[in-house]
From TrEMBL:
GO terms for cellular component: chloroplast; membrane. It comes from Papaver somniferum (Opium poppy). PANTHER family: CHOLESTEROL 7-DESATURASE NVD, IRON-SULFUR DOMAIN CONTAINING PROTEIN. Pfam families: PaO, Rieske. The keyword Amino-acid biosynthesis does not apply. This is Rieske domain-containing protein. SUPFAM superfamilies: Bet v1-like (SSF55961), ISP domain (SSF50022). The lineage of its organism: Eukaryota, Viridiplantae, Streptophyta, Embryophyta, Tracheophyta.
Protein backbone atom coordinates (compact mmCIF):
# COMPACT_ATOMS: atom_id res chain seq x y z
CA UNK A 1 0.00 0.00 0.00
CA UNK A 2 2.83 2.38 0.80
CA UNK A 3 4.23 1.83 -2.68
CA UNK A 4 0.89 2.69 -4.24
CA UNK A 5 0.68 5.87 -2.18
CA UNK A 6 4.06 7.07 -3.39
CA UNK A 7 3.20 6.25 -6.98
CA UNK A 8 -0.11 8.06 -6.81
CA UNK A 9 1.48 11.12 -5.24
CA UNK A 10 4.29 11.39 -7.76
CA UNK A 11 3.61 14.00 -10.39
CA UNK A 12 6.26 12.70 -12.71
CA UNK A 13 4.54 9.54 -13.84
CA UNK A 14 1.02 9.59 -15.21
CA UNK A 15 0.37 6.13 -16.61
CA UNK A 16 -1.87 5.86 -19.63
CA UNK A 17 -1.93 2.83 -21.90
CA UNK A 18 -2.95 3.29 -25.49
CA UNK A 19 -1.92 2.06 -28.91
CA UNK A 20 0.08 5.04 -30.02
CA UNK A 21 2.32 4.99 -26.99
CA UNK A 22 3.41 1.36 -27.21
CA UNK A 23 1.98 0.67 -23.75
CA UNK A 24 4.64 2.45 -21.74
CA UNK A 25 4.15 4.85 -18.83
CA UNK A 26 3.65 8.42 -19.97
CA UNK A 27 5.52 11.03 -17.97
CA UNK A 28 3.55 14.24 -17.79
CA UNK A 29 5.56 16.82 -15.89
CA UNK A 30 4.25 19.61 -18.10
CA UNK A 31 0.75 18.96 -16.79
CA UNK A 32 1.75 18.92 -13.14
CA UNK A 33 0.80 22.52 -12.57
CA UNK A 34 -2.79 21.89 -13.60
CA UNK A 35 -3.08 18.20 -12.87
CA UNK A 36 -1.90 18.12 -9.26
CA UNK A 37 -3.48 20.95 -7.28
CA UNK A 38 -3.38 18.92 -4.08
CA UNK A 39 0.38 18.38 -4.04
CA UNK A 40 1.66 20.13 -0.92
CA UNK A 41 4.83 22.09 -0.34
CA UNK A 42 6.29 24.88 1.74
CA UNK A 43 7.29 26.95 -1.31
CA UNK A 44 6.23 30.56 -1.30
CA UNK A 45 6.71 33.26 -3.90
CA UNK A 46 10.12 33.02 -5.47
CA UNK A 47 12.30 35.94 -6.43
CA UNK A 48 15.90 36.44 -7.45
CA UNK A 49 18.26 37.46 -4.69
CA UNK A 50 20.76 39.35 -6.83
CA UNK A 51 23.42 39.46 -4.17
CA UNK A 52 23.57 35.68 -3.97
CA UNK A 53 22.08 34.71 -7.32
CA UNK A 54 19.68 32.12 -6.03
CA UNK A 55 16.00 31.43 -5.60
CA UNK A 56 14.63 32.65 -2.28
CA UNK A 57 11.28 33.18 -0.57
CA UNK A 58 9.63 36.54 -0.15
CA UNK A 59 6.50 37.58 1.64
CA UNK A 60 3.30 38.08 -0.30
CA UNK A 61 2.90 41.61 0.99
CA UNK A 62 5.63 42.81 -1.34
CA UNK A 63 3.63 41.89 -4.42
CA UNK A 64 0.39 43.53 -5.45
CA UNK A 65 -2.62 41.32 -5.98
CA UNK A 66 -3.73 43.48 -8.89
CA UNK A 67 -2.66 42.41 -12.38
CA UNK A 68 -0.44 44.79 -14.34
CA UNK A 69 -1.26 43.24 -17.72
CA UNK A 70 -4.77 42.78 -19.03
CA UNK A 71 -5.00 40.70 -22.23
CA UNK A 72 -8.22 42.48 -23.22
CA UNK A 73 -6.34 45.80 -23.48
CA UNK A 74 -3.36 44.32 -25.29
CA UNK A 75 -3.16 47.04 -27.94
CA UNK A 76 -2.57 49.72 -25.31
CA UNK A 77 -0.10 47.56 -23.41
CA UNK A 78 2.16 47.32 -26.46
CA UNK A 79 2.11 51.05 -27.15
CA UNK A 80 4.38 51.81 -24.20
CA UNK A 81 7.76 53.27 -25.01
CA UNK A 82 10.70 50.92 -25.14
CA UNK A 83 13.00 51.07 -22.15
CA UNK A 84 16.65 50.19 -21.69
CA UNK A 85 17.64 47.38 -24.03
CA UNK A 86 18.25 43.88 -22.73
CA UNK A 87 21.83 42.81 -23.55
CA UNK A 88 21.56 39.20 -24.72
CA UNK A 89 25.34 38.74 -24.74
CA UNK A 90 25.84 39.80 -21.12
CA UNK A 91 24.22 36.84 -19.37
CA UNK A 92 25.11 33.27 -18.47
CA UNK A 93 23.58 30.53 -20.62
CA UNK A 94 23.26 26.82 -19.78
CA UNK A 95 24.66 24.51 -22.45
CA UNK A 96 23.83 20.97 -21.37
CA UNK A 97 23.47 18.83 -18.21
CA UNK A 98 26.84 17.56 -17.00
CA UNK A 99 25.47 14.01 -16.79
CA UNK A 100 25.04 13.97 -20.59
CA UNK A 101 28.61 14.95 -21.46
CA UNK A 102 31.20 12.36 -22.53
CA UNK A 103 34.71 13.22 -21.33
CA UNK A 104 36.32 11.24 -24.14
CA UNK A 105 35.18 13.45 -27.01
CA UNK A 106 34.62 17.13 -27.88
CA UNK A 107 30.97 18.23 -28.15
CA UNK A 108 29.67 20.72 -30.73
CA UNK A 109 26.95 23.09 -29.48
CA UNK A 110 25.39 26.35 -30.57
CA UNK A 111 24.02 29.05 -28.26
CA UNK A 112 22.94 32.56 -29.30
CA UNK A 113 24.19 31.80 -32.80
CA UNK A 114 27.70 31.08 -31.50
CA UNK A 115 29.31 27.77 -32.46
CA UNK A 116 31.14 26.40 -29.44
CA UNK A 117 33.01 23.24 -28.57
CA UNK A 118 32.80 21.70 -25.09
CA UNK A 119 35.65 19.41 -24.04
CA UNK A 120 37.08 17.89 -20.87
CA UNK A 121 40.43 19.33 -19.83
CA UNK A 122 41.95 16.61 -17.67
CA UNK A 123 44.96 18.80 -16.91
CA UNK A 124 42.73 21.40 -15.24
CA UNK A 125 40.08 18.86 -14.23
CA UNK A 126 37.22 20.92 -15.68
CA UNK A 127 35.06 21.40 -18.74
CA UNK A 128 36.28 24.04 -21.18
CA UNK A 129 34.27 25.99 -23.75
CA UNK A 130 36.09 27.25 -26.86
CA UNK A 131 34.93 28.86 -30.06
CA UNK A 132 34.41 25.99 -32.49
CA UNK A 133 36.94 27.20 -35.03
CA UNK A 134 40.64 26.47 -35.39
CA UNK A 135 42.62 29.72 -35.92
CA UNK A 136 44.65 28.00 -38.65
CA UNK A 137 42.07 27.34 -41.40
CA UNK A 138 38.81 27.64 -39.40
CA UNK A 139 38.15 23.89 -39.26
CA UNK A 140 35.67 22.92 -36.48
CA UNK A 141 37.52 21.87 -33.34
CA UNK A 142 34.49 19.79 -32.33
CA UNK A 143 35.47 17.33 -35.07
CA UNK A 144 38.83 16.87 -33.37
CA UNK A 145 39.93 14.75 -30.45
CA UNK A 146 41.40 14.96 -26.96
CA UNK A 147 45.10 14.31 -27.58
CA UNK A 148 47.55 12.16 -25.64
CA UNK A 149 48.58 15.12 -23.48
CA UNK A 150 45.00 16.05 -22.65
CA UNK A 151 44.81 18.92 -25.12
CA UNK A 152 42.16 19.72 -27.72
CA UNK A 153 43.57 18.69 -31.09
CA UNK A 154 42.33 19.89 -34.46
CA UNK A 155 42.35 16.82 -36.70
CA UNK A 156 42.79 18.85 -39.88
CA UNK A 157 46.47 19.66 -39.29
CA UNK A 158 47.12 18.55 -35.70
CA UNK A 159 47.29 21.91 -33.93
CA UNK A 160 46.83 21.45 -30.16
CA UNK A 161 45.30 23.85 -27.63
CA UNK A 162 45.17 23.87 -23.84
CA UNK A 163 42.30 24.99 -21.63
CA UNK A 164 43.40 28.63 -21.77
CA UNK A 165 43.29 28.55 -25.58
CA UNK A 166 47.06 28.72 -26.00
CA UNK A 167 48.43 26.82 -28.97
CA UNK A 168 50.88 24.28 -27.56
CA UNK A 169 51.92 22.45 -30.68
CA UNK A 170 52.04 23.04 -34.45
CA UNK A 171 53.45 19.91 -36.14
CA UNK A 172 54.36 21.80 -39.32
CA UNK A 173 56.50 24.41 -37.51
CA UNK A 174 60.29 23.65 -37.62
CA UNK A 175 61.75 22.85 -34.22
CA UNK A 176 64.65 25.27 -34.72
CA UNK A 177 62.46 27.99 -36.26
CA UNK A 178 60.44 30.81 -34.70
CA UNK A 179 57.89 29.70 -32.10
CA UNK A 180 54.86 30.59 -34.18
CA UNK A 181 52.59 28.69 -31.79
CA UNK A 182 53.09 31.48 -29.23
CA UNK A 183 51.67 34.16 -31.52
CA UNK A 184 48.37 35.63 -30.39
CA UNK A 185 46.71 34.74 -33.70
CA UNK A 186 47.54 31.06 -33.08
CA UNK A 187 45.37 30.96 -29.93
CA UNK A 188 41.85 29.55 -29.77
CA UNK A 189 39.11 31.81 -28.45
CA UNK A 190 37.92 30.78 -24.98
CA UNK A 191 34.56 31.52 -23.37
CA UNK A 192 34.21 31.85 -19.58
CA UNK A 193 32.43 28.79 -18.19
CA UNK A 194 31.46 27.22 -14.89
CA UNK A 195 29.62 24.23 -13.47
CA UNK A 196 26.59 24.87 -11.28
CA UNK A 197 23.43 22.93 -10.36
CA UNK A 198 24.53 19.96 -12.47
CA UNK A 199 24.73 22.15 -15.59
CA UNK A 200 27.54 23.60 -17.67
CA UNK A 201 27.13 27.37 -18.17
CA UNK A 202 29.05 29.77 -20.38
CA UNK A 203 29.32 33.53 -20.91
CA UNK A 204 28.92 34.33 -24.64
CA UNK A 205 31.84 36.74 -24.98
CA UNK A 206 35.53 35.93 -25.50
CA UNK A 207 36.72 39.46 -24.74
CA UNK A 208 39.55 39.25 -22.13
CA UNK A 209 37.68 41.67 -19.85
CA UNK A 210 35.18 38.85 -19.14
CA UNK A 211 37.83 36.26 -18.30
CA UNK A 212 37.02 36.41 -14.57
CA UNK A 213 33.33 37.26 -14.90
CA UNK A 214 32.45 34.25 -12.71
CA UNK A 215 33.97 36.05 -9.69
CA UNK A 216 31.64 39.02 -10.22
CA UNK A 217 28.46 37.50 -11.56
CA UNK A 218 27.07 33.97 -11.51
CA UNK A 219 24.06 32.22 -13.04
CA UNK A 220 20.83 31.90 -11.10
CA UNK A 221 21.41 29.41 -8.29
CA UNK A 222 18.65 26.90 -7.50
CA UNK A 223 19.35 25.26 -4.10
CA UNK A 224 16.94 22.36 -4.65
CA UNK A 225 19.07 21.02 -7.52
CA UNK A 226 22.01 20.55 -5.13
CA UNK A 227 19.95 19.42 -2.15
CA UNK A 228 20.51 15.66 -1.55
CA UNK A 229 16.98 15.36 -0.17
CA UNK A 230 15.61 16.28 -3.60
CA UNK A 231 15.54 14.12 -6.70
CA UNK A 232 16.04 16.08 -9.91
CA UNK A 233 16.50 14.10 -13.11
CA UNK A 234 17.33 16.23 -16.14
CA UNK A 235 16.60 16.00 -19.83
CA UNK A 236 17.44 18.07 -22.89
CA UNK A 237 16.29 18.34 -26.48
CA UNK A 238 17.02 20.38 -29.58
CA UNK A 239 13.81 22.08 -30.77
CA UNK A 240 13.08 22.99 -34.43
CA UNK A 241 11.38 26.26 -33.59
CA UNK A 242 12.63 29.42 -31.96
CA UNK A 243 13.22 30.49 -28.39
CA UNK A 244 10.20 32.82 -28.36
CA UNK A 245 7.73 30.11 -29.39
CA UNK A 246 9.34 27.62 -26.99
CA UNK A 247 8.84 29.88 -23.98
CA UNK A 248 5.32 30.83 -25.05
CA UNK A 249 4.37 27.17 -25.28
CA UNK A 250 5.72 26.34 -21.82
CA UNK A 251 3.91 29.38 -20.39
CA UNK A 252 0.57 28.35 -21.87
CA UNK A 253 -1.42 25.96 -19.61
CA UNK A 254 -4.58 26.28 -21.72
CA UNK A 255 -3.15 24.24 -24.61
CA UNK A 256 -2.44 21.14 -22.51
CA UNK A 257 -5.86 19.36 -22.69
CA UNK A 258 -5.99 19.89 -26.46
CA UNK A 259 -2.47 19.63 -27.89
CA UNK A 260 -1.59 16.77 -25.51
CA UNK A 261 -4.97 15.03 -25.43
CA UNK A 262 -4.66 11.34 -24.63
CA UNK A 263 -1.09 11.73 -23.34
CA UNK A 264 -1.28 13.88 -20.24
CA UNK A 265 -3.80 12.90 -17.59
CA UNK A 266 -5.60 15.92 -16.18
CA UNK A 267 -8.10 16.18 -13.31
CA UNK A 268 -11.65 15.91 -14.58
CA UNK A 269 -14.07 18.70 -13.80
CA UNK A 270 -17.81 18.32 -13.96
CA UNK A 271 -19.54 19.33 -16.06
CA UNK A 272 -17.09 19.34 -18.97
CA UNK A 273 -17.64 21.96 -21.64
CA UNK A 274 -16.12 19.66 -24.28
CA UNK A 275 -14.46 16.26 -24.57
CA UNK A 276 -10.99 17.58 -23.72
CA UNK A 277 -12.15 19.46 -20.62
CA UNK A 278 -10.68 22.91 -21.21
CA UNK A 279 -11.65 25.53 -18.62
CA UNK A 280 -11.05 29.24 -17.94
CA UNK A 281 -7.71 29.89 -16.22
CA UNK A 282 -7.08 32.94 -14.10
CA UNK A 283 -3.55 34.32 -14.68
CA UNK A 284 -2.50 37.72 -13.38
CA UNK A 285 0.96 39.18 -13.97
CA UNK A 286 2.01 41.04 -10.83
CA UNK A 287 5.46 42.35 -11.64
CA UNK A 288 7.32 42.91 -14.91
CA UNK A 289 10.71 44.52 -15.37
CA UNK A 290 13.93 44.04 -17.30
CA UNK A 291 14.87 40.94 -15.28
CA UNK A 292 11.61 39.13 -16.09
CA UNK A 293 8.19 38.84 -14.48
CA UNK A 294 6.13 37.09 -11.81
CA UNK A 295 2.57 35.84 -12.35
CA UNK A 296 -0.12 34.30 -10.15
CA UNK A 297 -2.16 31.43 -11.52
CA UNK A 298 -5.23 29.66 -10.14
CA UNK A 299 -3.12 27.14 -8.26
CA UNK A 300 0.24 28.79 -7.78
CA UNK A 301 2.90 31.04 -9.24
CA UNK A 302 5.11 31.21 -12.32
CA UNK A 303 8.28 33.18 -12.83
CA UNK A 304 10.35 34.08 -15.86
CA UNK A 305 13.95 35.14 -15.18
CA UNK A 306 15.52 36.52 -18.34
CA UNK A 307 16.89 35.23 -20.51
CA UNK A 308 16.55 31.48 -19.91
CA UNK A 309 14.78 30.38 -16.75
CA UNK A 310 11.05 29.71 -16.48
CA UNK A 311 9.65 27.78 -13.57
CA UNK A 312 6.32 27.05 -11.94
CA UNK A 313 5.38 25.94 -8.46
CA UNK A 314 1.96 25.01 -7.11
CA UNK A 315 -0.08 26.78 -4.48
CA UNK A 316 0.64 24.78 -1.34
CA UNK A 317 0.33 24.93 2.42
CA UNK A 318 3.32 25.50 4.66
CA UNK A 319 4.93 22.85 6.81
CA UNK A 320 3.86 24.52 10.05
CA UNK A 321 0.21 23.78 9.45
CA UNK A 322 -0.76 27.43 9.03
CA UNK A 323 -2.17 28.67 5.76
CA UNK A 324 0.39 29.71 3.21
CA UNK A 325 0.35 33.32 2.09
CA UNK A 326 -0.18 31.97 -1.42
CA UNK A 327 -3.35 29.96 -0.91
CA UNK A 328 -6.27 29.03 1.24
CA UNK A 329 -6.15 25.24 1.30
CA UNK A 330 -6.95 23.55 4.57
CA UNK A 331 -4.12 22.15 6.62
CA UNK A 332 -2.97 18.77 5.34
CA UNK A 333 -1.35 15.89 7.24
CA UNK A 334 2.23 16.58 8.30
CA UNK A 335 3.66 13.94 5.96
CA UNK A 336 1.96 15.58 3.01
CA UNK A 337 2.65 19.20 3.90
CA UNK A 338 6.40 18.77 3.60
CA UNK A 339 6.30 17.60 0.00
CA UNK A 340 7.96 20.09 -2.30
CA UNK A 341 8.36 20.29 -6.05
CA UNK A 342 9.40 22.75 -8.74
CA UNK A 343 8.99 22.62 -12.51
CA UNK A 344 12.08 24.21 -14.06
CA UNK A 345 12.63 24.85 -17.77
CA UNK A 346 15.81 26.35 -19.20
CA UNK A 347 15.03 27.77 -22.64
CA UNK A 348 18.15 28.40 -24.73
CA UNK A 349 18.19 30.47 -27.94
CA UNK A 350 20.24 28.61 -30.55
CA UNK A 351 19.45 30.53 -33.74
CA UNK A 352 16.45 31.71 -35.77
CA UNK A 353 13.97 28.83 -35.78
CA UNK A 354 16.16 26.78 -33.41
CA UNK A 355 16.21 26.44 -29.62
CA UNK A 356 17.13 24.00 -26.88
CA UNK A 357 15.21 23.10 -23.74
CA UNK A 358 16.61 21.59 -20.55
CA UNK A 359 14.03 20.43 -18.04
CA UNK A 360 14.17 19.20 -14.46
CA UNK A 361 11.52 18.75 -11.78
CA UNK A 362 13.18 18.62 -8.34
CA UNK A 363 11.06 16.98 -5.65
CA UNK A 364 11.65 15.67 -2.14
CA UNK A 365 9.30 12.68 -2.28
CA UNK A 366 9.27 9.41 -4.21
CA UNK A 367 13.03 9.58 -4.75
CA UNK A 368 13.21 5.80 -4.95
CA UNK A 369 11.42 5.96 -8.31
CA UNK A 370 14.47 7.55 -9.91
CA UNK A 371 16.68 4.79 -8.51
CA UNK A 372 14.46 2.00 -9.83
CA UNK A 373 13.32 3.46 -13.15
CA UNK A 374 16.07 4.40 -15.66
CA UNK A 375 16.16 8.02 -16.78
CA UNK A 376 15.48 7.08 -20.41
CA UNK A 377 12.04 5.71 -19.46
CA UNK A 378 11.01 9.17 -18.26
CA UNK A 379 12.44 10.68 -21.44
CA UNK A 380 10.25 8.43 -23.62
CA UNK A 381 7.11 10.03 -22.22
CA UNK A 382 8.54 13.54 -22.09
CA UNK A 383 9.63 13.36 -25.73
CA UNK A 384 6.15 12.23 -26.74
CA UNK A 385 4.73 15.33 -25.04
CA UNK A 386 7.19 17.55 -26.92
CA UNK A 387 6.40 15.81 -30.21
CA UNK A 388 2.64 16.15 -29.86
CA UNK A 389 2.69 19.90 -30.60
CA UNK A 390 6.11 20.24 -32.22
CA UNK A 391 4.95 20.29 -35.85
CA UNK A 392 2.15 22.80 -35.34
CA UNK A 393 4.45 25.13 -33.36
CA UNK A 394 7.04 25.01 -36.13
CA UNK A 395 4.40 26.06 -38.66
CA UNK A 396 2.99 28.67 -36.27
CA UNK A 397 6.39 30.33 -36.02
CA UNK A 398 6.58 30.72 -39.79
CA UNK A 399 3.18 32.43 -39.77
CA UNK A 400 4.32 34.77 -36.99
CA UNK A 401 7.41 35.71 -38.99
CA UNK A 402 5.23 36.44 -42.02
CA UNK A 403 3.20 38.82 -39.84
CA UNK A 404 6.37 40.56 -38.61
CA UNK A 405 8.24 40.54 -35.31
CA UNK A 406 6.70 43.80 -34.13
CA UNK A 407 3.13 42.94 -35.17
CA UNK A 408 2.46 40.08 -32.77
CA UNK A 409 -0.24 42.00 -30.90
CA UNK A 410 -2.04 42.74 -34.18
CA UNK A 411 -1.69 39.27 -35.68
CA UNK A 412 -2.88 37.39 -32.56
CA UNK A 413 -6.19 37.76 -30.72
CA UNK A 414 -5.75 36.91 -27.02
CA UNK A 415 -8.89 38.07 -25.15
CA UNK A 416 -8.81 35.73 -22.12
CA UNK A 417 -6.69 35.67 -18.97
CA UNK A 418 -5.44 32.17 -19.79
CA UNK A 419 -3.01 33.91 -22.19
CA UNK A 420 -1.68 36.19 -19.45
CA UNK A 421 1.81 34.68 -19.34
CA UNK A 422 2.18 34.71 -23.12
CA UNK A 423 1.09 38.35 -23.26
CA UNK A 424 3.53 39.21 -20.47
CA UNK A 425 6.42 37.55 -22.29
CA UNK A 426 5.61 39.34 -25.56
CA UNK A 427 5.36 42.62 -23.68
CA UNK A 428 8.72 41.99 -22.01
CA UNK A 429 10.27 41.11 -25.38
CA UNK A 430 8.79 44.22 -27.02
CA UNK A 431 9.70 46.54 -24.17
CA UNK A 432 13.30 45.47 -23.63
CA UNK A 433 14.37 43.87 -26.93
CA UNK A 434 12.33 45.37 -29.74
CA UNK A 435 10.11 42.31 -30.07
CA UNK A 436 12.89 39.87 -30.99
CA UNK A 437 16.24 38.46 -29.91
CA UNK A 438 19.23 40.61 -30.75
CA UNK A 439 21.54 38.19 -32.57
CA UNK A 440 24.07 40.93 -33.20
CA UNK A 441 25.36 40.67 -36.77
CA UNK A 442 25.07 36.89 -36.85
CA UNK A 443 21.68 36.42 -38.53
CA UNK A 444 19.25 38.29 -40.74
CA UNK A 445 16.22 36.78 -39.00
CA UNK A 446 15.29 34.42 -41.84
CA UNK A 447 13.93 31.06 -40.68
CA UNK A 448 15.28 27.81 -42.14
CA UNK A 449 12.86 26.06 -44.53
CA UNK A 450 10.50 23.39 -43.24
CA UNK A 451 12.03 19.92 -43.77
CA UNK A 452 10.00 16.69 -44.17
CA UNK A 453 8.07 15.74 -41.04
CA UNK A 454 10.28 12.71 -40.36
CA UNK A 455 13.32 15.00 -40.22
CA UNK A 456 11.60 17.79 -38.31
CA UNK A 457 10.39 15.44 -35.55
CA UNK A 458 13.51 13.28 -35.49
CA UNK A 459 14.36 12.16 -31.96
CA UNK A 460 17.73 10.56 -32.53
CA UNK A 461 19.72 13.67 -33.47
CA UNK A 462 17.63 16.06 -31.38
CA UNK A 463 17.79 14.04 -28.15
CA UNK A 464 19.27 10.54 -28.12
CA UNK A 465 22.80 11.51 -29.18
CA UNK A 466 22.76 14.24 -26.52
CA UNK A 467 21.48 12.04 -23.68
CA UNK A 468 23.81 9.55 -21.99
CA UNK A 469 20.93 7.44 -20.64
CA UNK A 470 19.08 7.14 -23.95
CA UNK A 471 22.30 6.35 -25.84
CA UNK A 472 23.05 3.42 -23.54
CA UNK A 473 19.42 2.24 -23.65
CA UNK A 474 19.33 2.31 -27.45
CA UNK A 475 22.56 0.34 -27.67
CA UNK A 476 21.24 -2.31 -25.28
CA UNK A 477 17.87 -2.58 -27.02
CA UNK A 478 19.58 -2.91 -30.41
CA UNK A 479 21.66 -5.81 -29.09
CA UNK A 480 18.52 -7.45 -27.71
CA UNK A 481 16.73 -6.92 -31.03
CA UNK A 482 19.47 -8.88 -32.82
CA UNK A 483 19.78 -11.53 -30.10
CA UNK A 484 16.09 -12.51 -30.07
CA UNK A 485 15.90 -13.87 -33.65
CA UNK A 486 19.26 -15.60 -33.14
CA UNK A 487 17.79 -17.42 -30.15
CA UNK A 488 14.74 -18.31 -32.23
CA UNK A 489 16.84 -19.75 -35.08
CA UNK A 490 18.98 -21.76 -32.66
CA UNK A 491 15.86 -23.14 -30.97
CA UNK A 492 14.34 -24.22 -34.30
CA UNK A 493 17.66 -25.78 -35.31
CA UNK A 494 17.81 -27.81 -32.13
CA UNK A 495 14.29 -29.12 -32.65
CA UNK A 496 15.08 -30.09 -36.24
CA UNK A 497 18.41 -31.76 -35.41
CA UNK A 498 17.50 -33.78 -32.33
CA UNK A 499 15.29 -36.80 -33.03
CA UNK A 500 15.66 -38.76 -29.81
CA UNK A 501 16.16 -38.36 -26.08
CA UNK A 502 14.51 -35.76 -23.89
CA UNK A 503 14.09 -33.29 -26.78
CA UNK A 504 12.22 -35.93 -28.78
CA UNK A 505 9.19 -35.44 -26.53
CA UNK A 506 6.38 -33.74 -28.42
CA UNK A 507 5.56 -31.45 -25.49
CA UNK A 508 9.18 -30.27 -25.24
CA UNK A 509 9.43 -29.72 -28.99
CA UNK A 510 6.21 -27.69 -29.01
CA UNK A 511 7.52 -25.60 -26.10
CA UNK A 512 10.77 -24.85 -27.92
CA UNK A 513 8.96 -23.93 -31.14
CA UNK A 514 6.62 -21.67 -29.15
CA UNK A 515 9.65 -19.99 -27.59
CA UNK A 516 11.13 -19.43 -31.05
CA UNK A 517 7.92 -17.87 -32.33
CA UNK A 518 7.73 -15.60 -29.27
CA UNK A 519 11.34 -14.51 -29.81
CA UNK A 520 10.59 -13.59 -33.43
CA UNK A 521 7.46 -11.68 -32.39
CA UNK A 522 9.32 -9.90 -29.57
CA UNK A 523 12.07 -8.89 -31.99
CA UNK A 524 9.52 -7.35 -34.37
CA UNK A 525 7.76 -5.53 -31.52
CA UNK A 526 11.09 -4.29 -30.16
CA UNK A 527 12.10 -2.98 -33.58
CA UNK A 528 8.85 -1.00 -33.73
CA UNK A 529 9.35 0.27 -30.15
CA UNK A 530 12.90 1.42 -30.89
CA UNK A 531 11.89 3.27 -34.03
CA UNK A 532 8.95 5.10 -32.43
CA UNK A 533 10.75 6.06 -29.23
CA UNK A 534 14.32 6.71 -30.37
CA UNK A 535 13.93 7.85 -33.97
CA UNK A 536 10.53 9.10 -35.11
CA UNK A 537 7.04 9.10 -33.62
CA UNK A 538 4.37 10.70 -35.78
CA UNK A 539 1.41 12.39 -34.13
CA UNK A 540 -1.98 12.91 -35.77
CA UNK A 541 -4.33 15.08 -33.71
CA UNK A 542 -7.32 14.35 -35.95
CA UNK A 543 -7.27 10.67 -34.98
CA UNK A 544 -7.12 11.27 -31.23
Amino acid sequence: MRTLEVLSSSALIQTRFHKSSNHYPICSPLSFFNANPLMNSSFQKISVNKSRFKISSTSSSSISSEPIINPSSLENEFQEEEEEKFDWFSHWYPIIPLCDLDKRVPHAKRVMGLDIVVWWDRNEDKWQVHHDSCPHRLAPLSEGRIGQWGRLQCVYHGWCFDGAGDCKFIPQAPIDGPRVNTFKKACARVYPSLEQNGLLWFWPNTDPQYKNIATKEKPLYIPELDDPSFSSLMGNREIPYGYEVLIENLMDPAHVPYAHYGIMRLPSKSPKLDREGGTPIEINVQRLDKTGFLAKQDRGYNKFIAPCVFYAYPNMTSGSGSLSSMGSEKAAPEAVKKRQMLLIFLCIPVGPGRSRVIWTFPRNFGQWLDKVIPRWVFHVGQNLILDSDLYLLHLEEHKLIDAGYTNWQKACFVPTKSDGLVVAFRKWLRKYSGGQIDWGTKFKGILPPTPPKEQLMDRYWSHVVNCSSCRVALKGLRILEVALPVVAVVAIGIVAAVKQGFLASMAVRISIVTLAVLCFAASKWLSHFIYKNFYFHDYNHALR
